[in-house]
Design brief:
With 588 residues, this protein is of the alpha/beta class. The chain contains 28 helices and 8 strands. The radius of gyration is 31 Å and the shape is globular. It starts with a helix and ends in a 13-residue tail after the last helix.
């Protein structure tokens, strides 16, 4: 008997058609319904894989077996059953028709809802991307620093590509270890594409899996696997960047820039030390920052011409000095920060991180606003898609009382790092300086929702409460500030508007006793709130002598601006070389 006739007799053709229609129905359900129910993308992929695998199995079963009213029988036995043919003649057609109708309905419903949802979303450029933290699949949690570091370097490399919007590290890393679907992530970050994958580091070998995803529907646009020696990791970064630009149809003028993290002498141990330093630096603790200086120092020992290691070392020493040290210890740390930044620039004049590091040192402790602005504008020009230099420039502009410019730059940084807690904090500080308390509170509440335990958020919420005369809210927000000098400052502010004057005096005295070395500017602000200008200016002079970083907030701190008509205020601004005319008059 002819083979194809036998296929027809055994209903294999019918099963193939029916299977195809039902498979399409299942895939429509998976792709259209599953996302609505927030079912992870891996389940969708599993359904599709099972459907594909099941096709040849269904054909084999169709050849050997057949459904009858009495149940599943082998084809030979089914053929001998009376009336089977007449009963099954049209049944398969009904099944196919119903499945096809449901599939078509789901298909068009999905297209319709997608278009409606897309129209409701803000305009997102197709040339926008977020690099999600690469998953460490080595089996050793101690290798997290490597996968995180590689993710950050991919962000840095992609940030150098003109016309590509790349989301900053602090926003994209909020999704580390989470199972949010691609659409949700894309909406939160304001991007059309996501780059995700994994890193497996073993010995001197590394396997990197990279996948470019369409955020709206989870479709894979491109994927590749790289099995290389560790020494080739920088070449892989460039290859991935090239693949992304090709997929997003971005024209490159030459090859993507090489990663700034590449050691000058190709010493992988130096690169490893750099990544470990950055891992600890990101902890934003005194202990972590001290460890970061050690690892950055080791990277420099292994490669004395490692410009990025010097730039990062500068940032770590400056953070230590500004955040936790005081007196001679702080002066020594600031000096190390300045030397490291200058060395980084001598080695790599076009390194954005080096200009940013020097700009921050010129801002604090030097209070050299003109020099700091020149360096930070260079940093921003060299890395226009990096939120870091923009935030630093925004802080500088606010320190000079140029609040409109500062707000504009701060919002640009926020667009590149839409979930960055510190971006909201700095924007709120500008808004408070301009008397826009409702907007400032909204920004701070957004940041607190993202990271409830973040430092300084509730200090500024306390400030807003005090300005509004909300005594109860001030105490509540002050108590929510994490323990430390910022909480002492918040409580000192909050107690000044309570009815208990003894408690107010005690809260101020506690701030003086415990934080006089590190917080002279904040003590001055409390005296300003108490309407004791003599004491306020005394502590402002102490802040100037100590080069307190708080002085960058002089023109956005309402409790001090209350005394802006005092002749001593104008004299103090002149000492700082700040234009008094730019001082913003805030609400009482």
């Amino acid at each position: 008997m002819n083979f194809f006739s036998e296929l027809k007799r055994r209903n294999v053709y019918k099963v193939a058609i029916a299977y195809g229609v039902v498979a399409w129905l299942l895939m429509q359900i998976a792709t259209q319904v599953f996302p609505f129910l927030e079912i992870p993308n891996w389940v969708v992929r599993l359904v599709i894989a099972l459907v594909v695998i099941g096709f040849p199995i269904a054909l084999v079963i169709a050849w050997a077996f057949e459904a009858t009213p009495e149940g599943i029988k082998r084809t030979e036995a089914a053929d001998s059953t009376p009336a089977t043919a007449s009963q099954k003649k049209h049944a398969w057609i009904y099944i196919v028709a119903i499945a096809a109708a449901i599939s078509v309905a789901l298909f068009f419903l999905g297209r319709y809802t997608t278009s409606k949802q897309a129209s409701a979303l803000p305009d997102v450029s197709a040339k926008s991307i977020a690099v999600l933290p690469l998953v460490n699949t080595s089996g050793d949690p101690g290798n997290d620093y490597f996968s995180d570091g590689l993710s950050e370097e991919l962000i840095a490399v992609l940030a150098k590509i003109p016309d590509l919007k790349i989301i900053g590290r602090s926003s994209s890393f909020l999704f580390k270890g989470k199972s949010d679907d691609s659409r949700t992530i894309g909406e939160k970050l304001g991007v059309a594409n996501l780059l995700e994958g994994s890193v497996r580091k073993q010995g001197d070998r590394v396997r990197i899996v990279a996948e470019l995803i369409n955020a709206a529907d989870g479709r894979t646009l491109w994927s590749d696997t790289y099995d290389r020696e560790l020494k080739d990791v920088f070449a892989v970064q460039s290859e991935i960047a090239t693949a992304v630009t090709e997929q997003l149809k971005i024209k490159l003028l030459g090859a993507p820039a090489k990663s700034d993290a590449a050691p000058s002498n190709d010493n992988l141990a130096a690169y490893n030390a750099l990544l470990q330093g950055t891992f600890y630096f990101r902890l934003s603790t005194e202990e972590g920052t001290r460890k970061a200086t050690e690892f950055y120092g080791e990277a420099i020992r292994l490669d004395p011409r490692y410009a990025l290691a010097y730039a990062n070392l500068s940032s770590a020493w400056r953070l230590l000095a500004a955040g936790w040290l005081g007196g001679a210890e702080a002066e020594e740390a600031f000096a190390k920060a300045r030397n490291a930044a200058q060395t980084a620039l001598s080695l790599a004049p076009d390194l954005s991180a080096a200009h940013e590091a020097l700009g921050f040192v010129l801002l604090t402790p030097d209070l050299n606003f003109t020099g700091a602005e020149a360096e930070l504008r260079k940093a921003e020009k060299l890395a226009p898609a990096d939120a870091g230099p923009k935030t630093a420039l925004s802080i500088l502009l606010a320190a000079q009382g140029r609040l409109a410019e500062s707000e504009n730059v701060a919002r640009q940084a926020l667009a590149l790092d839409p979930l960055g807690v510190t971006r909201y904090l700095y924007l709120a500080r500008i808004l408070i300086g301009g008397g826009r308390y409702d907007e400032a509170e909204a920004a701070l509440r957004k940041a607190a929702a993202l990271q409830p335990a973040a430092s300084r958020l509730h200090v500024h919420l306390t400030t807003i409460d005090v300005l509004r005369g909300n005594a109860t809210g001030a105490l509540q927000d002050a108590q929510l500030e994490p323990p430390g000098s910022w909480r002492d400052y918040a409580l000192a502010l909050a107690h000044q508007i309570q009815s208990d004057r003894a408690a107010a005096d005690a809260a101020l005295q506690k701030l003086i006793n415990e934080d006089a070395v590190n917080s002279p500017f904040q003590i001055a602000a409390v005296y300003g709130l108490r309407n004791e200008p003599d004491k306020m200016f005394e502590w402002l002079d102490r802040a100037y002598t100590a080069r307190d970083p708080g002085l960058t907030q002089l023109l956005v701190t309402p409790f001090i601006l209350t005394h802006k008509n005092d002749l001593r205020f104008a004299a103090f601004c002149q000492k700082l070389k700040l234009p008094v005319s730019t001082t913003v008059v805030t609400k009482p």
